[in-house]
Write a structure and sequence with these properties.
The chain is of the alpha/beta class. It contains ten helices and seven strands. The relative contact order is 0.16.
């Protein structure tokens, strides 16, 4: 069952992003190893055992991208500057939006991680078929800065603490909070501007009874501007 789902997913991604994937090896995607009720310390131990650095991609998930192909091209340029034998690629474990980078990373020979809130299990959010190891961090939120506090939620704390480099391609409030925290810790942070999907943003605003949006650049852009 998993193999057929993974095959269907990679086929659909390859169709959508054919110009990028056509010249690459097939993605070796299989069932992920799930690390239940995990912690930042457990992730740290996993990474330390492998003696590798962690490259984390931030961006839009459910909000998706207005130009997904451009997002993948940006991600490809980042990946091409790294060595798969030295770097683990981390995203948020789920399939939507920035999660498309998982297959790209696998096609380039990287081992992939997903650090995600335990809410992903509670809400049965689909995982990417191309994530190798998923760490479900016990959390009552999806991440970001805790209300009325300068501290990060457990999921975001685990992501920031275990990342050597964070690259944001667009992104909302959670991505913004994590990149800001990483910068405060002196970690390498790079931001690449990208619009969220315009139509999905309009639909969400209508559903919530909010004014029709005119700025689709996301909360991370408001902080990091035209790129770093």
């Amino acid at each position: 069952m998993y193999a057929s789902l993974a095959s269907a997913f990679t086929a659909s991604i390859a169709f959508a992003f054919g110009p990028i994937f056509a010249a690459l090896a097939p993605a070796d995607c299989g069932p992920p190893q799930l690390h239940q009720e995990s912690t930042s310390t457990a992730v740290r131990s996993f990474v330390k055992q492998r003696r590798m650095r962690v490259l984390t991609f931030e961006g839009y998930s459910g909000a998706q991208y207005e130009d997904s192909l451009a997002m993948l091209r940006d991600a490809e340029r980042v990946l091409d500057a790294e060595n798969p034998k030295e770097v683990l690629v981390n995203i948020g474990a789920t399939a939507e939006g920035i999660g498309a980078v998982y297959e790209l990373a696998k096609r380039k020979g990287f081992t992939t991680l997903g650090i995600v809130s335990s809410l992903a299990q509670v809400e049965s959010v689909p995982l990417s078929p191309c994530v190798d190891h998923v760490f479900f961090i016990k959390d009552t939120s999806w991440g970001g800065q805790l209300p009325n506090s300068e501290r990060l939620a457990p999921t975001s704390e685990a992501i920031v603490a275990n990342s050597s480099i964070i690259v944001g391609i667009g992104g909302g409030e959670i991505a913004r909070d994590e990149m800001l925290a990483a910068k405060r810790l002196g970690k390498r942070v790079r931001f690449i501007p990208a619009d969220m999907n315009h139509e999905l943003a309009r639909q969400k605003a209508t559903k919530l009874g909010l004014p029709t949006p005119t700025d689709f650049r996301g909360a991370a852009h408001a902080m990091f501007g035209e790129g770093t």
